[in-house]
Amino acid sequence: MQKFTTVTGVAVPLRRSNVDTDQIIPAVYLKRVTRTGFEDALFAAWRQDPDFVINKKEYQGARVLIAGADFGIGSSREHAVWALRDYGFDVVLSPRFGDIFRGNSGKQGLLAGQISEADAETLWNLVEADPGIELTVDLVGKTVRVGDLTVNFEIDDYTRWRLLEGLDDIGLTLRDEARINEFEATRESWLPQTLPARSPESMY
Amino acid sequence: MTNVIPTSQRSSGTGLRTLAEKVWDKHLVTKGEDGTPDLIYIDLHLLHEVTSPQAFDGLRLAERTLRRPDLTIATEDHNTPTLDIDKPIADLTSRTQIETLRRNCAEYGVRLHSLGDIEQGIVHVVGPQLGLTQPGITVVCGDSHTSTHGAFGAMALGIGTSEVEHVMATQTLPLNPFKTMAITVNGTLRTGVTAKDIILAVIARIGTGGGAGYVLEYRGEAIRALSMEGRMTICNMSIEAGARAGMVAPDQTTYDYLEGRAHAPRGADWDAAVAYWQTLATDEGASYDAEVIIDANKLEPFVTWGTNPGQGVSLSGSVPNPADIVDANERSAAERALEYMDLEAGTPMKEIRVDTVFLGSCTNSRVEDLRAAAEIIKGKTIAAGLRMMVVPGSARVRIEAEAEGLDQIFLDFGAEWRFAGCSMCLGMNPDQLEPGERCASTSNRNFEGRQGKGGRTHLVSPLVAAATAIRGTLSSPWDLVQDGDQ
Ligand code: SF4
């Protein structure tokens, strides 16, 4: 996972609250067997409407999503984060997130920053007045800058640290790899092993 | 739930530990600090085609390796057909998942039991059958019914796809500590009452959320008297009470089941293993965070009437009246369930007529289950218009059953005898209910649409499944005795 410090890019104003994971990625896309390539699945139902905000040409290549409250509620599918990442988003800002979604985001390198309702409104107005304007999200200072305006966002210290270090769950565990090696060396020899395969017929 | 009584205090400080705590402590790689999870070593990782593809893909993207192929094993079960298994799988999604598993296992050196292989079958039947599931180990699988393996005194946890990837890469999992709950089943089961009835009664008592955050330990006289198959049935459904896992302390029954199995320890290793296994039982005087007590003497065959496994009642009872339910959420859930199930409050359960009987799934598809059902139906004829599907849990179970002539008993009765797999337990392969079709099923989930869109499921034991197939209405072997044709 890449280390996260600042992101500068186009922001999409998504003036909707209670966006659940089924809207972020409809269930039909969950049948795939890959971890990537979900960009077409993001907001698939809404994107059929040419006027849906993400479809506007000013917002192409966006990296920041500014959403209403309770973004990412609903079923725990990790695909919701994958779809946002694959589409190109590095940051989602919202006044409140679904808990599981927020947890999944931190693990997949997506910054879920909490902003006040008032700041969400301010940012929406700014971006809508000048579509395609770039803003800068600074994880070190926990700020969003656009033109002369700076607003703060919240993120818990642990998730912030992980994003700054670029550690996914596995990376985090592998920092203790020496401990795992030590533990493995103490395991009893008679513990089950799947290889080499034995079958009852070949036993005796 | 109110029915879960918290006991005084966990035995902290006394040095006395429960089974679950012992297994956990034994696998502690690092102890979590300041609210971070413990890192737990995983002894056995089971894979199947549904939850593994993206984990393999994640591994590949991050250029990581599979740390311990020798502690990993895969089988094909959820998507596989139970007829024409030599033909290509018709459904494209299913076929893609199976083909992806085959490719991934070849690439990463994972042992795979494919359709047609003698060890192929439901992942939770295969592990114990090979002797890989052993007391005191940690087992994970990207499947909620991994709890099955707890019957051996293993800590067996169902995990999600990203955790599957984590175990692949590190052979460990960061896990939060758990609470312990004793489910003490005293007394003796009456003839005709089985392990399935115990667990359905437990879930009806504590509710589908009653076990949340807990590892359940089943203990007491009635549990000790159960075979390994019966213990697996009970542990299998722990997840339906919301629990993280279910366990039974190993004893002579466990050792007898394991001895001589392909991957069980041998010779001096066997002795060393048994010595460890004998230390696992909960210490005398150790306490649990909660306890539930069940009287086996009073249990009757149990069936579900609703759309979650907690909505169950004794077979001699009736469909409950939602108006009698105090809790508002449960009341509206019951109302919705009755509407979906097309049942009237007050209807005696025994008057409910079914279209289909399904004998199978990781809950009840082992040889013992098939044998018990076969004994009931032997020499009888299936109820007119009813269809019965018998699906062994693994290819080896099928072969064993055939060696005993069970297949012929089922076929003579008028049932279908299928190849191994998850089959009608879930609507993911060709074996599905039609909308409105009513099924007595030995599986573990009666959710709306679980066995096919619009299908209606009553969860039952293999004995009730067999008696129902004879009479056409929900029945137990007790009813056959009353019919005078035993
Ligand atoms: S039999 Fe049913 S519950 Fe068991 S693993 Fe298969 S689908 Fe899951």
N/C terminus separation of chain A = 49 Å
Return the CATH architecture of chain A. Alpha-Beta Barrel
Which regions of chain B are unreliable across 5 or more consecutive residues at pLDDT < 50?
5-11
Rg of chain B (C-alpha, Å): 22 Å
Annotation, overall tally of beta strands of chain B: 20
**Spatial order of the strands in the main sheet of chain A?**
4-3-2-1-5-6-7
Please describe the biggest sheet of chain A, giving its number of strands, its sense, and whether it closes into a barrel. Answer: 7 strands, mixed
Q: Give the class-level CATH name of chain A.
A: Alpha Beta
CATH topology of chain A: Aconitase, domain 4
Q: How many domains make up the 3D coordinates of chain B?
A: 3
Catalytic activity (chain A): (2R,3S)-3-isopropylmalate = (2S)-2-isopropylmalate
EC number (chain A): 4.2.1.33
GO cellular component, one term (chain A): 3-isopropylmalate dehydratase complex
InterPro entries (chain A): 3-IsopropMal_deHydase_ssu (IPR004431), Aconitase/3IPM_dehydase_swvl (IPR015928), AconitaseA/IPMdHydase_ssu_swvl (IPR000573), IPMI_Swivel (IPR033940), LeuD (IPR050075)
Describe the structure.
The complex is a heterodimer of chains A (204) and B (486). By secondary structure, chain A is α/β, with parallel strands linked by helices. Chain A has one domain: Aconitase, domain 4. In chain A, 31% of the residues lie in helices and 17% in strands. Chain A contains eight helices and seven strands. Chain A has helices at 21-24, 44-47, 79-87, 99-107, 117-129, 157-165, 169-174, 177-185; strands at residues 6-14, 64-67, 91-94, 111-114, 134-138, 143-146, 149-152. Chain A has a seven-stranded mixed sheet with strand order 4-3-2-1-5-6-7. In chain A, strand 5 (134-138) and strand 6 (143-146) form a beta hairpin. The longest helix of chain A has 13 residues, at 117-129. In chain A, 33% of the residues are buried. The model of chain A has no long low-confidence stretch (mean pLDDT 94). In chain B, the strands form five sheets. Chain B has a five-stranded mixed sheet. The radius of gyration of chain B is 22 Å and the shape is globular. With 486 residues, chain B is α/β, with parallel strands linked by helices. Chain B contains 16 helices and 20 strands. Chain B has three domains: 26-175, Aconitase, domain 3 (2-Layer Sandwich); 176-298, Aconitase, Domain 2 (3-Layer(aba) Sandwich), CATH 3.40.1060; 304-477, Aconitase, domain 3. The chains are: A alpha/beta (204), B alpha/beta (486). Chain A binds chain B through residues 31, 33-36, 76, 78, 107, 168-170, 172-174, 176-177, 179-180, 183-184, 187-195, 197-200, 202-203, and chain B through 29-30, 39, 41, 43-44, 53-54, 57-58, 61-62, 64, 69-73, 93, 96-97, 100, 111, 118-119, 131-134, 137, 160-162, 165-166, 169-172, 174, 260-263, 265, 269-270, 272-273, 276. Bound molecules: iron/sulfur cluster (SF4). Iron/sulfur cluster (SF4) binds at residues 77-78, 122, 124, 143, 145, 361-362, 422, 425-426, 443-444 of chain B.
